[in-house]
Amino acid sequence: GAVVSQHPSWVICKSGTSVKIECRSLDFQATTMFWYRQFPKQSLMLMATSNEGSKATYEQGVEKDKFLINHASLTLSTLTVTSAHPEDSSFYICSATGQGGETQYFGPGTRLLVL
Amino acid sequence: GDSVTQMEGPVTLSEEAFLTINCTYTATGYPSLFWYVQYPGEGLQLLLKATKADDKGSNKGFEATYRKETTSFHLEKGSVQVSDSAVYFCALGSAGGYQKVTFGTGTKLQVIP
What confidence score (pLDDT) does residue B28 get? Predict the structure, then answer.
């Protein structure tokens, strides 16, 4: 149980375009979802936290107009990278917790390359 | 703020060797501590956790003990296998309305036959 999926797993886009990444909890209701960014050989950095039906809470230094997060249902959260630039190229990982849950369950990640 | 420091890799061991991956943390209050594992091409999986001082988390032959006096949560395994090759992340969770997790940089383990 506690499976989280992400789609797509790999995306290449042109600079200036927008890219949407989906995160789904497949077998549980995710009251809270987290979005992370991972640079090569570096740790995961939390970008934002979203609760179903409310606005996401962004970490300091993360542009909320750049990284749009929507958590419209208990099984789906989306991250949209707007007007992507090469410096946005990275590995984006989502995670989710159930109600009262302490443990985060992670998706497999989405690798974004902006040309 | 909260932080996690773990030993840099890669760590290369022969099969059946003893494994230790060091992890120390800085946090206010009483965090929960975690080890996550990331196998090649997969997402992070929770390996084990401990929620209070002196707790020992264990799973799949791996163990880690929450040491408050040394602010450490070192990962150990008595006999590693090739299938243990992966990246291991030490992490701490701060209490609050939700569990905010701070990760270490990860340690790559390669086990050779």
Answer: 83
